[in-house]
TrEMBL record, chain A:
Transmembrane segments: none annotated. Its main location: Golgi. This is Vacuolar protein sorting-associated protein 51 homolog. It comes from Denticeps clupeoides (denticle herring). Involved in retrograde transport from early and late endosomes to the late Golgi. The GARP complex is required for the maintenance of protein retrieval from endosomes to the TGN, acid hydrolase sorting, lysosome function, endosomal cholesterol traffic and autophagy. Acts as component of the EARP complex that is involved in endocytic recycling.
Automatic annotation (TrEMBL), chain B:
Residues 339-358 are annotated as: Disordered. This is EIPR1-like beta-propeller domain-containing protein. Residues 346-358 have a biased composition (Basic and acidic residues). The keyword Repeat applies.
Length: 832, 410
């Protein structure tokens, strides 16, 4: 322990002040220098007051030593001592390093301070020199100004007098100068000169000499004003002259309102002349339009619709087409109007706003006048344009109209730029919109007319074969469809395809025409109406959808109007229309609507008619037409059968030798109907009949049944047997609806027709009474029908059943029922 | 509530002729005439016991021939007329030389042997008592109709139908034969018939034939409506002149017509165009309404005698359709209840009902038949009951659905 204490003691003597207190003070100063105050340390950790803390500020070596000695064992003490020695050594070396590092800095600081001391001394000398120089300058300056003062005052006075004299001279010369200006018509100069003098004269008017001058000037200026007004009134001058005039007059304090009115009335006269010119032209074209209307208006093909304004086809006799008319209107009226507006605004509104007149509300008054003026004239112009547009009835060339409207609209934009608040451009847009609407209406009616005309053509083409059946008519009359070298009339599929193609082309060309309204280079195409409503409500709904509806509607009318009177519409037309409607349902409608939607990107969100609705309508129309076709054809055959049954005396007829001609006719007609329907409709599904359902097996079957059915029924013992078999048959067969809707295929159509015919036959037979041979004749006839009709229907059992009924019923109605041998019947039928 | 099932009765023979026994207002009774060329034709008297749902039949023999039309006297239960084909032995017929004015249109067959005649008959008085006790015996000794008189038609041709004066005393008849409408007076207890007036004659191109007719119950029974081909004509019986003519009433043959019992200008017609049309005879250009529900020719149309919104139609599509034509009936706003009948408590209830009148609609389609239905008739005793007759001899008795019945009544 002692050695440790003694060892630390010599160490501490290295420093001159071994006393801990001054040593601590030195520490404190250093700490101050480096900004490490004790509080900084205190922030880090709580300052320990423990005197045994070797790093604490209150460290007491004695206490620490005692404490160690008391508490620690010898080993620990030795360790402690070693540790402490190590620490002391490291602290010493740290301190040495610090001193070495900072030494150079101290040296250079001392050098700098010394250098500064020298520089300041030199500067002090220079400053002293400067201040003496400045004092000398001040003294000189004061002396000069003192000498010059008198002369300066004199010069100022002289120049003042000179100016006054010049002004006076100007005043005295003023009347003469004004007169000269007047003579030279240099009004502008005169006015500006007078303006300069006016105030002075006014001010000194109490002096007689000045008064004289003033009077002279006033007289001259009055004369000048008179001349200006005259010039203004004459109006022959150009707009530029005019505006100059007005400008001068305004400077002469003429009342602005009066000037406005005069200016406008003057402009009005000229614009009136333009309008009258337009009106005269309109009258000319009206008279020529009458001529034009008498010539048939035909919709051009797509190729024609792209023709330019020089299209001779549209208005051959008209002097001016609408484009020229609008052009003239734009070039004369609208451009003049713009000019008037511009100069007016320049004169009365913009200029005055700067000047003192602005306070008098004159700009407001002036612009109010201008608006009424423009509105009234524009209204007249618009009415003329509207009249002209209304005359555009021919739907041939839309591009002309669209271009005219575009120009019309474009030129009005100039007005809107000049006159921002004006209602004129919006009215113009309204006219364009109106024209577009009207156009759509015209196109719809043109399409409808076209459709009806095409139908008439088809009707004629259908009727033609009958008329020219012997004649060697070359091609089909309507469409020249390539029926070929034969003199065959256009077949139904040809007619159908040409009809639907021509309608489709027509729609396309109309769409193309209407599409011009929305072309990008057309100024009004970005108006909200043309972007939205025009596309969806106008083109899609009013034009395309309406047309499709019209087609369905008119097709349906064929069924209704012909319903009672019968046969006013040729059945082939019904069939054709039915197929047309069906095609519409399957593809055409969606095609047309897709086309429309693509061309007119509909952004409007109003509800539009859905494709499915239209398709349903078309399908309904097709169904109705086909049903009607079946009914009409069925009736035609029914009538033949009915007549043949009703007009014959079946009791006294002779033994059958032949099939009656009527039956052959029925089979022939059915075959031709079969061909006709087959041209347009698919075969359809038959109930599978066995491969051996030839006529022979069938006739055996039916004959055996007939035998069973009516042979025993006339034995008195069993009258109830009469109907037993047919009743049983009925029990197991479905009820036959005679006039029932048919499906869209050939077999179904033919089945319908045959059903109607045979049922009529049955009902007619039941109303007659037959003799033996009458019955046999019916047997023969039925067998004949059986031989030929089964192949047309979906379910041959149907034909068998109905024919059995007929034979059965006639057997019942027979006075002497002795049926013919089946073999004989077959022989007769095969003989034909 | 469940509607009663239809009652079906089968005849042995084919049949077209059906009528209600008009003069009978207590029992539900229908008369059916058969059509058989081979056997003795019969008239079946069908009595329907409503409470027990039982049919009682009596058979009377009709020797004269197959019956095409039958109608019962409105005054005398026992009297009826039939139109029948004379089907006598061909050899006998062949020997009869025929006058020129007969079968004109069928000139080729100058030796024709079929002729439709009409006669007035009386049922034997004892049929009712005689057969009731032992139905089995009826086949053994069927009784025969007693002939009262022939409506001699040799001058006029084939008789299409015979019409009794509606609600008359059973003394006046009209027969429609070929193109003549002849008015008969029955005298001396109906045993002698005389032509009362000169007959009305249909004139025009071709051979015109009456197909059907109806004696109007309105205007003091002075009007007659007839159908020929597609035309409906109205006749004034006092002058026997035409008073109206509905050209092209139907697209094809007009099969039947009937007068609205309560609205004097309204009549219904039906025909081969599958349609039923309603006419106001004051406007012959357009039908008031047109129905197209059947899928084949409509052969018969009948207004209910009491509630003219109910209409029956029979068609050769084997269906009978009962329609409710409220909008053109005499009670378009439902049954109007007298204020006296209403107690205050009921008033609200009644108003509620009258606010929703029935719409024109098909009430029911009856499909019990399996062959063409040529005749349908309302019962004269029970307005809610009707029968229909199909060619195969099946008679079906049906009722108006109860729900509707109560709706109309209440």
């Amino acid at each position: 322990n002692d050695s440790a204490a003694t060892k630390t003691a010599p160490k501490s003597t290295i420093y001159p002040d071994a006393d801990p207190a001054p040593k601590r003070r030195v520490h404190g100063m250093l700490k101050l220098y480096y900004g490490l105050n004790e509080e900084g340390k205190a922030l880090g950790q709580a300052e320990s007051l423990d005197p045994c803390d070797i790093n604490g500020p209150h460290f007491d070596p004695e206490l620490y030593l005692n404490k160690l000695r008391k508490e620690c064992s010898l080993g620990e003490l030795v360790d402690q001592e070693a540790c402490m020695v190590k620490q002391i050594r490291s602290l010493d070396s740290d301190m040495q390093t610090l001193v070495y590092e900072n030494y150079n800095k101290f040296i250079s600081a001392t050098d700098t301070i010394r250098k500064m001391k020298n520089d300041f001394k030199k500067m002090e000398d220079e400053m002293d020199c400067l201040s003496t120089n400045m004092a000398a300058i001040t003294e000189f300056s004061a002396r000069i100004s003192g000498t010059l003062q008198d002369q300066h005052a004199q010069i100022t006075k002289l120049s003042g007098v000179h100016t006054l004299l010049r002004k006076l001279q100007f005043l005295f010369e003023l009347p003469a100068r004004l007169n000269k200006c007047l003579e030279l018509q240099a009004y502008g100069q005169a006015v500006s000169a007078h303006r300069r003098a006016r105030c002075v004269l006014q001010q000194y008017s109490h002096m007689p000499s000045f008064r004289g001058i003033q009077d002279d000037c006033r007289a001259i200026m009055d004369q000048l004003a008179q001349q200006l007004r005259q010039k203004f009134r004459d109006g022959g001058s150009s707009a530029k002259d005019l505006s100059e005039c007005v400008e001068l007059l305004l400077q002469l304090d003429e009342p602005a309102e009066e000037l406005c009115d005069k200016f406008l009335s003057h402009a009005q006269a000229r614009l009136e002349a333009d309008l009258q010119g337009l009106e005269a032209e309109l009258r000319d074209s009206t008279s020529s339009a009458v001529v034009k209307a008498s010539s048939p208006v035909i919709i051009g093909s797509p190729a024609e619709s792209s023709m330019s304004a020089t299209n001779p086809f549209l208005a051959p006799s008209s002097k001016t087409d609408i484009l020229e008319f609008i052009d003239r209107g734009c070039n004369e009226f609208v451009s003049n109007l713009c000019l008037v507006i511009a100069s007016y605004q320049e004169l009365f509104i913009n200029r005055l706003q700067e000047g003192d007149l602005a306070t008098k509300n004159i700009p407001q008054m002036a612009s109010g006048k201008l608006h009424t003026f423009v509105n009234s004239l524009a209204a007249r112009y618009f009415s003329l344009v509207e009249r002209r547009i209304q005359e555009e009835k021919g739907v041939g060339d839309n591009s002309l109209l669209v271009r005219a409207l575009d120009r019309f609209h474009r030129r009005l934009q100039a007005v809107s730029k000049l006159l921002p608040g004006s209602a004129v451009p919006s009215q113009g847009t309204e006219i364009v919109v109106q024209a577009a609407r009207e156009r759509i209406r015209q196109y719809l009616s043109a399409l409808q007319t076209f459709y009806l005309d095409s139908l008439t053509d088809v009707r004629q083409a259908l009727a033609a074969p009958r008329l020219t059946v012997g004649g060697a008519a070359g091609a089909g009359p309507l469409l020249g469809s390539g029926a070929g070298a034969k003199d065959a009339p256009p077949s139904l599929p040809d007619l159908l395809s040409s009809l639907s193609t021509s309608i489709l082309n027509q729609i396309k060309s109309v769409l193309a025409s209407v599409h011009l309204f929305t072309a990008k280079d057309i100024t009004f195409s970005n108006k909200p109406y043309f972007k939205g409503e025009f596309c969806s409500q106008g083109v899609r709904e009013s034009l395309v959808v309406s047309f499709i509806k019209f087609v369905c509607q008119s097709s349906r009318q064929f069924c209704e109007s012909a319903g009672d009177r019968g046969g006013s519409t040729p059945p082939a037309l019904l069939l054709l229309l039915s197929r047309l409607c069906l095609d519409y349902e399957t593809s055409t409608i969606s095609y047309i609507l897709t086309l429309t939607d693509e061309q007119f990107l509909v952004q409007h969100h109003t509800p539009v008619t859905a494709v499915t609705v239209l398709c349903a309508e078309a399908r309904e129309a097709a169904q109705k037409l086909l049903n009607h076709y079946v009914k009409v054809q069925g009736l035609i055959i029914s009538q033949m059968l009915r007549k043949s049954v009703e007009t014959r005396d079946w009791v006294n007829t002779i033994e059958p030798r032949n099939v009656r001609a009527v039956m052959k006719r029925v089979v022939e007609d059915t075959t031709s109907i079969d061909v006709q329907v087959g041209l347009l409709y698919e075969e359809g599904v038959r109930k599978a009949h066995s491969s051996d359902s030839s006529k022979r097996t069938f006739s055996v079957y039916s004959s055996s049944r007939q035998q069973v059915r009516y042979a025993p029924s006339y034995t008195p013992s069993a009258p109830m047997d009469t109907n037993l078999l047919s009743n049983i048959h009925r029990l197991f067969s479905e009820r036959i609806d005679i006039f029932s809707p048919v499906e869209f295929n050939k077999v179904s159509v033919l089945t319908g027709i045959i059903k109607i015919s045979l049922k009529t036959f049955l009902e007619c037979v039941r109303l007659r009474t037959f003799g033996r041979y009458g019955l046999q004749q019916i047997q023969v006839d039925c067998h004949y029908l059986q031989m030929y009709l089964w192949r047309f229907v979906s379910d041959e059992n149907l034909v068998h059943f109905l024919l059995d009924e007929i034979v059965g019923s006639s057997a019942h109605r027979c006075l002497d029922p002795s049926p013919m041998e089946q073999s004989v019947i077959e022989v007769i039928c095969e003989r034909g | 509530m469940e509607d009663d099932a239809p009652v079906i009765y089968g005849l042995e023979f084919q049949a077209r002729a059906l009528t209600a026994q008009t003069a009978e207002t207590d029992a539900i009774r229908f008369l059916v005439g058969t059509q058989s060329l081979k056997f003795e034709n019969q008239i079946h008297i069908i009595d329907f016991d409503d409470e027990n749902n039982i049919i009682n039949k009596n058979v009377l023999l009709h020797h004269a021939g197959e019956i095409w039309d039958i109608s019962a006297s409105p005054a005398d239960k026992g009297v009826l007329t039939t139109c029948y084909n004379k089907s006598e032995c061909p050899r006998v017929l062949a020997s009869i030389s025929l006058s020129d004015n007969f079968y004109i249109f069928d000139f080729i067959s100058s030796e024709s042997r079929v002729l439709t005649c009409a006669s007035v008959w009386r049922m034997p008085p004892e049929w009712e008592s005689g057969s009731h006790e032992s139905p089995d015996d009826s086949s053994n000794s069927p009784q025969t109709l007693e002939l009262l008189c022939h409506l001699d038609n040799m001058a006029h041709g084939n008789v299409a139908c015979v019409l009794w004066e509606p609600m008359g005393n059973g003394k006046r008849l009209i027969s429609l034969a070929d193109n003549h409408a002849v008015l008969w007076d029955l005298q001396e207890s109906s045993t002698k018939a005389t032509v009362r007036y000169s007959s009305a004659t249909l004139e025009g191109k071709g051979q015109l034939k009456f197909t059907s007719g109806k004696w109007s119950p309105h205007h003091n029974c002075t009007q007659l409506a007839t159908a020929n081909d597609t035309v409906i004509r109205g006749w004034d019986l006092r002058s026997m002149s035409q008073i109206y003519c509905i050209e092209n009433a139907h697209g094809q043959l007009v099969r039947d017509l009937d007068f609205n019992p309560n609205k004097q200008y309204y009549l219904a017609s039906c025909g081969d165009d599958c349609k039923v049309k309603f006419w106001d005879v004051r406007n012959v250009n357009e039908p008031v309404k047109s129905l197209e529900e059947h899928s084949h020719w409509v052969w018969s149309v009948r207004y209910n005698h009491s509630h003219d919104q109910l209409l029956l139609t029979a068609s050769s599509d084997s269906r009978v359709i009962l329609s409710n034509m409220v909008s053109i009936s005499s009670e378009p706003f439902g049954h109007l209840v007298d204020d006296d009948d209403l107690s205050d408590a009921e008033e609200g209830h009644q108003e509620e009902k009258s606010k929703e009148p029935l719409q024109d609609s098909i009430i029911a389609t009856y499909e019990e038949h399996e062959d063409s239905v040529y005749a349908v008739e309302w019962s004269s005793a029970d307005p809610w009951l009707f029968s229909s007759l199909s060619y195969d001899g099946r008679l079906v008795i049906n009722r108006v659905p109860r729900a509707l019945k109560y709706r109309i009544l209440l």
